[in-house]
Write a structure and sequence with these properties.
The protein has 84 residues and is α+β, with helices and mostly antiparallel strands. The chain contains two helices and six strands; from the N terminus they run H-E-E-H-E-E-E-E. It is elongated, with a radius of gyration of 13 Å. The mean pLDDT is 89.
Length: 84
Amino acid sequence: MVTHTLMMEKLILKFKVKAGEGGRLFGSVTAKDIAEKLEKEHKIEVDKKKVLLDDAIKTAGITQVEVKLYEGVTAKVKVEISAE
């Protein structure tokens, strides 16, 4: 379990999204997007409900997102969003 947590905390998920002035996104990055990228790029299957995101990410920058791996075990993943 600890190995999974340490491995995930080193990950940086990168998204390129169309944005307007001030880095405000045209759309957003959701828990579903994060779960899909974890599976596609890192072969880590996580239900989107386990991605602990209060609201979709709507601005460019780096955000720490908690992902629930097991009961009582979470990992923080960096999500980097850059404007296209």
